[in-house]
Specification:
Layout: H1 2-32, H2 38-73, H3 79-106, H4 114-120, H5 123-137
Helix pairs in contact: 1-2, 1-3, 1-4, 2-3, 3-5
Length: 140
């Protein structure tokens, strides 16, 4: 059972990360679109569908399956798991922040620049590197 849970956890993580890396990139392009334009409205649809159909469900599955793995594998006392948990909390907080940004774009109230979203676009990748190293190397 553990291996099946792990397989579906990895699939959920890949889906979540794909969305977390793509959504801020959409925001970069959305910054250039004129409010009310066809292009702006298209970005709104793309962003909403990405969040509702991929990112949100993938995050929920990642959390549920990850917690199941912690329980099934007895990892709850491992130091590396605590560090990983902290990074996943940060990734989840970033997810929440991106939802807030999406709501601002959807209401035509974005005040942030392309540069801001280009920088934010790197944060999920940095967190992912830390998480993968902790899971594979288990340094402590």
């Amino acid at each position: 059972m553990y291996e099946w849970v792990k397989a579906f956890h990895v699939i959920a993580v890949i889906s979540w990360m794909a969305g977390m890396l793509y959504l801020p990139r959409l925001f970069v392009y959305h910054c250039d679109a004129q409010i009310g334009s066809k292009q702006s409205e298209t970005f709104k649809v793309m962003e909403r569908r990405l969040l509702k159909a991929i990112i949100n469900p993938a995050m929920i599955l990642t959390w549920l399956l990850g917690l199941a793995l912690v329980w099934l594998g007895g990892w709850y006392a491992a130091g590396w798991m605590h560090a990983k948990f902290a990074l996943v909390i940060l990734l989840s907080a970033l997810h929440g922040f991106l939802v807030r940004c999406w709501r601002e774009f959807d209401a035509d109230r974005n005040t942030r620049s392309q540069k801001f979203y280009r920088i934010i676009n790197e944060v999920p990748a940095v967190l992912m590197v830390g998480i993968v190293i902790l899971v594979i190397v288990k340094p402590f």
